[in-house]
Design a protein that fits this description.
Ribosomal_Su5_D2-typ_SF, binds 4-diphosphocytidyl-2-C-methyl-D-erythritol, isoprene biosynthesis, 9 helices, globular, transferase, Ribosomal Protein S5, domain 2, EC 2.7.1.148, alpha+beta, about 290 residues, 10 strands, binds adenosine-5'-triphosphate
Length: about 290
């Protein structure tokens, strides 16, 4: 019986993000294209039958344990199981910047849900896990389902998509952006006309934009400056509500050349866009 697994918790990019309306509860209705990156955190889940309960080995800096999406995801599964489960110890190797628009916290929640479902042999399917995940964050369902997708609603209505698996230079301007703050800005575009999407979206995402970009560039000069630099080499775009921006390149070497020439002081990484989540690739290997 497996007692310990290490699983990827990848980043996502919003290749485009249109705000098409607002629900009565204030949440914004989106049309977005999600793709995963082969870059992210690693989460290790180890059963501790001799020690009951859920133990976090390394807290996430600045996040109280009770708010940590890893712990909240694990507790949501315990509540669903309604019977005694062996204890688990959870470790994380954090690489993704927080407040980056890369969905790090949501991805951590999804990896925990799928990993514990596997270790605890709960037998929950993706529909059940995505429903549990949505209560934790709007971005959790796409990480649970694990395929690049066109997202509608608040991001939970997902249609599998097949954008090209290009290489990306991802830059993290030196600022922390709060998602709720951007969504509450007065100047935000909220009325982009809905686009029609074929069941399997294969379109060219570069025709579309991120509606948060104007507001974010106005409020955060760090984002504007990084964007101006990256735009020299091709279109650059914001992911989610920022702060990270990305440029798309056809090969790894093309991306690395630009990465090597970045001004000192800018952090980030080079990664490949992938349509099947590295988490699901790993879980398939384990089956
Ligand atoms: C911007 C995206 O990253 C796009 O993928 C996501 O929609 C954000 O997802 P997330 O970080 O999981 O966001 P949540 O934790 O669910 O929401 C944070 C806050 O942002 C606002 N919010 C979020 C998502 C949305 N579609 N409309 C909103 O107005 C709400 O005030 C909410 O309280
Ligand atoms: N395990 C976790 N890892 C990172 N952030 C977490 C975690 N648990 C809770 N959080 C909280 O969630 C917030 C958003 O984190 P996250 O890394 O998902 O941001 P993001 O990349 O901007 O995501 P998004 O694209 O979904 O807006 C953090 O600022 C933090 O307060």
């Amino acid at each position: 019986m497996t007692t310990s697994i290490t699983l990827p918790s990848p980043a996502k990019l919003n290749l485009f993000l249109h705000i098409v309306g607002r629900r009565p509860d204030g949440y914004h209705e989106l049309q977005t294209l999600f793709q995963f990156l082969d870059y992210g955190d690693d989460i290790t889940l180890s059963l501790t039958p001799e020690q009951p309960g859920i133990h976090l080995e390394n807290p996430v800096a600045g996040v109280p344990d009770d708010d940590n999406l890893i712990l909240r995801a694990a507790r949501a599964l315990v509540a669903r199981a309604r019977h005694e489960l062996p204890g688990v110890s959870i470790g994380i190797n954090k690489r993704l910047p927080m407040g980056g628009g890369l969905g790090g916290g949501s991805s951590n929640a999804a990896t925990t849900l799928l990993g514990l479902n596997h270790l605890w042999r709960l037998g929950l399917d993706y529909d059940e896990l995505a429903e549990i995940g949505l209560a934790l964050g709007a971005d959790v369902p796409v990480f649970v389902r694990g395929h690049a997708a066109f997202g509608e609603g608040i991001g939970e209505k997902l249609t599998p998509a097949f954008p090209p698996e290009d290489w990306f230079v991802v830059l993290k301007p030196d600022c922390h952006i709060n998602t709720a703050k951007i969504f509450s800005e007065q100047g935000l575009t909220r009325d982009t006309p809905r686009i029609k999407i074929a069941p399997a979206f294969e379109g060219d995402a570069s025709r579309y934009r991120n509606d948060c970009e104007g507001v974010v560039k106005r409020l955060y000069p760090e984002v504007r400056e990084s964007m101006e630099w990256l735009t020299q080499f091709g279109p650059a775009r914001l992911t989610g509500t920022g702060a990270c921006i990305f440029g798309r390149f056809p090969t790894e070497s093309a991306a690395r050349i630009i990465w090597e020439s970045k001004p000192s002081g800018i952090t980030g990484f080079v990664a490949k866009g992938v349509n099947v989540s590295p988490l699901h690739q790993k879980l398939t290997e384990l089956e």
